[in-house]
């Protein structure tokens, strides 16, 4: 596989996995002019579960790809609110009123099913730039011959592609084909997820949190693993709750919501006897109560071998505490779309994937490590990390916290150009370092290129 020729050429691309990451990269590579086939192990490429956060660094690519974002029925977030565990009074608030003006795009909150449908439509529909991607279901990847690009599926079928993208999630088979064995451990926290119907809550006389249009957190300030995260989706019609507690209070063996039965509401309420009564009343009418097994993965050594690369959770699984998992998969997809687009791709797959590895692994690893810190200290979370005046503010290293500025001021084109110049022995003269503008001052007072290096 791999080729050292000059001049853009159309590739036959195979994408393993039909989830959010797989559909995103299918759109990006379709828009770049390539022929894309998506292989999904299930009998349909579906996504079930809860809300998905899509900040400006993810939303910008949806617009660049001409995705019909309204079809995802999002909530546009206006605030991040951290509340006192017992009283519900705000402890730390990060206002997003000027978010779109600063970063060019809004902060969307989607329901996973709606977001997936939105992306699937954009990948497969006849209209829009590029040839529609093909979706092949009931094809679970079993092995990949890295030399020939032949994929063998569990059903006995085979397929050959010039470029293969492994977007098959945290339990990735493609990752194993690349010789990567995850170094992982169970997280110190467990999670139960529940959905609450806003109309039902209001009819019962409960607080209408949908009116806040906010990501809301209870707890997380005391260095413990007790934390509730509320995110509205479906235009505010559904309230999605993530309920974290120490693993000693309950452990679960499965890693997803889609293949597990609902848990009893008593189990959901059990770890939280002193929780804000308003939230307990919401959880008491919760539905689709599902466990989520959390793992802490050490960064992987690389994201590609030959002409096979990893994307999203297959390449950099992370804890959910920075709300950046989907955005990192979308950024991965965007990077591949740019690198294999007419502007930069000169026919050399090895070169393009080397640059992909060089730009994506450090950025995703930074978010991955920051997410692990935010698991037990909400002040490390993007947004709250800038609220230094909060009475309970304490972080490991103020000049290294992850910030909205670092995430949203990032220019992927400049990052790619810098790394391509290094690959090609050319001079890079733009005033950027790893995609961030040199001289950018972060909320901590650190300045990019002076005392902060991404």
UniProtKB/TrEMBL annotation:
Pfam families per record: FAD_binding_3
FAD-binding domain residues: 11-370
Keyword annotations from UniProtKB, A to Z: FAD, Flavoprotein, Monooxygenase, Oxidoreductase
Highest taxon listed in the record's lineage: Eukaryota
PANTHER family attached to this UniProt entry: HYDROXYLASE, PUTATIVE (AFU_ORTHOLOGUE AFUA_1G12410)-RELATED (PTHR13789:SF172), MONOOXYGENASE (PTHR13789)
Family: Belongs to the paxM FAD-dependent monooxygenase family.
Protein name, as recorded: FAD-binding domain-containing protein
């Amino acid at each position: 596989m791999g080729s050292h020729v000059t001049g853009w050429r159309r590739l036959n691309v195979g994408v393993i996995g039909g989830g959010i990451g797989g559909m995103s990269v299918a759109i990006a590579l379709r828009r770049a002019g390539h022929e894309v086939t998506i292989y999904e192990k299930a009998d349909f490429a579906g996504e079930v579960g809860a809300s998905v956060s899509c900040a400006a660094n993810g939303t910008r690519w949806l617009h660049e790809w001409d995705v019909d974002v309204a079809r995802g029925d999002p909530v546009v977030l206006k605030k991040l609110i951290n509340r006192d565990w017992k009283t519900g009074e705000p402890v730390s608030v990060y206002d997003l009123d000027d978010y779109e003006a600063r970063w060019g795009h809004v902060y969307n909150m989607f329901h996973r099913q709606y977001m997936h449908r939105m992306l699937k439509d954009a990948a497969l529909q006849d209209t829009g730039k590029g040839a529609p991607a093909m979706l092949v279901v009931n094809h679970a990847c079993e092995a990949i011959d890295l030399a020939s690009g032949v994929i063998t599926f569990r059903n006995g079928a085979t397929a050959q592609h010039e470029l293969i993208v492994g977007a098959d999630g945290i339990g990735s088979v493609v990752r194993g084909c690349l010789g990567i064995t995850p170094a992982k451990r169970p997280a110190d926290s467990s999670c139960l997820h529940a959905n609450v119907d806003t109309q039902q809550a209001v009819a019962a006389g409960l607080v209408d949190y949908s009116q806040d249009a906010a990501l809301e957190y209870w707890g997380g300030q005391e260095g413990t693993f007790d934390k509730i995260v509320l995110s509205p989706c479906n235009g505010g019609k559904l309230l999605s709750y993530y309920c974290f507690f120490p693993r000693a209070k309950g452990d679960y063996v499965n890693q997803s919501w889609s293949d597990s039965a609902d848990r009893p509401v008593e189990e959901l309420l059990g770890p939280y006897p002193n929780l804000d009564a308003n939230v307990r009343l919401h959880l008491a009418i919760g539905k689709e109560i599902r466990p989520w097994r959390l793992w802490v993965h050490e960064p992987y050594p690389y994201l590609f071998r030959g002409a096979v690369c990893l994307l999203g959770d297959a390449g950099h699984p992370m804890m959910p505490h920075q709300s950046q998992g989907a955005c990192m998969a979308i950024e991965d997809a965007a990077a591949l779309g740019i690198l294999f687009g007419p502007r930069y791709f000169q026919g050399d797959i090895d070169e393009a994937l080397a640059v992909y590895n060089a730009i994506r692994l450090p950025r995703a690893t930074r978010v991955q490590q920051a997410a692990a810190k935010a698991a037990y200290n909400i002040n490390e979370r993007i947004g709250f990390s800038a609220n230094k005046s909060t009475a309970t503010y304490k972080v490991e290293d103020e000049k290294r916290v992850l910030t909205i500025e670092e995430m949203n001021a990032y220019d992927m084109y400049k990052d790619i150009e810098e790394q391509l110049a290094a690959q090609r022995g050319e001079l890079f003269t733009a005033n950027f370092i790893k995609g961030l503008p040199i001289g950018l001052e972060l909320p901590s007072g650190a300045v990019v290129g002076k005392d902060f290096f991404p």
